[in-house]
Amino acid sequence: MTGSRYFINILRFTLLVLVQVLVFNRLNFFGFINPMIYILFLYWYPIKENRTVFIGIGFLLGFVIDIFSDTLALHAAATVSIAYLRPTIMRFVFGINYEFQSFKLSNTTRAQQITFLALLIVAHHVIFFTLEIFSLPNLLVILKKVIFTGIGTLILCLLFSSLFSVQKE
Amino acid sequence: MQQIINFILRYKITLLYLLLLTISLAFTFQSHSYHRSRYFNSANWLSGGIYNTMERFSTYFGLGEINRQLLEENRRLRSLLYNNENKDSVELDTVALNYTLISARIIKNSYSNQDNYITINKGKNQGVAQDMGVISALGILGIVEKTSNNYAAVQSILNTKSNLNAKIKGTNYFGSLTWNTERFDQVQLEDIPRLVPLLVGDTIVTGAMSSIFPENIPIGIIKKFDLNTSQSFYRIDVQLFNDMTNLKNVYIIDNPSREEILELENDLNNDR
Question: Measured between CB atoms, does B37 come within 8 Å of chain A?
Answer without folding.
Answer: no
